[in-house]
Amino acid sequence: MYPDLEGKTAIVTGAATGLGKAIAMRLGREKANVVINYHSNREGVDEMIEEIEQAGGKAIEVQASAAEEEGVKKLIQAAHDTFGSLDIMINNAGKENEVESHKMPLEDWNSVIQLNLTGYFLGSREAISYMLEHNIKGTVINMSSVHEIIPWPHFVHYAASKGGVKMMTETLALEYAPKGIRVNSIGPGAINTPINQEKFEDPEQKKQVESMIPMGYVGEPEEIAAVAAWLASSESSYVTGITLFADGGMTKYPAFQGGKG
């Protein structure tokens, strides 16, 4: 637990499901004020708010597109109007779809880049502007992926977006470190979220994925939420401009495990 997170205000985009939900719930258990963002599906949000409040935190829900300028500004305004501050911005909303690169429609490319990269820029820009205006030494956390460094055929738009998030995070961290604003990314590996449910329900596909993970198992959303809580807390006060990979070792060339090669 991180006592300094109590009473801090955090926005989590794409917080109604998957990694975003786990992060929002963890921050709520840390007794933070949480702005739960969703775009279209609010299923389970009422229960999230109730659980956060029972844990000693506070929460509101805000329907908005994290890929659009007005949607992001709406989130910042809601945090300010309800809780009077913004200390933590977590850009988490994202999407992917599988298409061979030479067949990928421009619409698919634009849609993924708009949410996964432009949306993160907008979230970072608006949060940093707010922090500067109110003299807050806050933190921005971007949800990247192991695919910011591992190529991923059939997902060129997703991999490109996460590679962009890496350099955006590092650039913003360098630019705003003198102001006491920290900017970091989290790079999850294979995680048991709804977007992967169908794949992991197939024993063969799950086994194939596990073979690429030196630790031998698919991670849980709560393991990523723990990383987010640490990066948001003062325990990581001297950390900025990194991608913290939480991937069971997936980025460490698992094909070479056991001295192969």
UniProtKB/TrEMBL annotation:
InterPro entries in the cross-refs: NAD(P)-bd_dom_sf, Sc_DH/Rdtase_CS, SDR_fam
Keywords from the UniProt entry: Oxidoreductase
Pfam families assigned to the protein according to its UniProt record, in alphabetical order: adh_short_C2
SUPFAM superfamilies in the record: NAD(P)-binding Rossmann-fold domains (SSF51735)
Keyword Oxidoreductase: yes
Keyword Oxidoreductase attributed: yes
Signal peptide: none
Highest taxon above the source species: Bacteria
Family: Belongs to the short-chain dehydrogenases/reductases (SDR) family.
Record-linked PANTHER family: OXIDOREDUCTASE, SHORT-CHAIN DEHYDROGENASE/REDUCTASE FAMILY (AFU_ORTHOLOGUE AFUA_5G02870), SHORT-CHAIN DEHYDROGENASE_REDUCTASE FAMILY PROTEIN
Name by which UniProt lists this protein: Glucose 1-dehydrogenase
Upper lineage: Bacteria, Bacillati, Bacillota, Bacilli, Bacillales
Gene: gdh
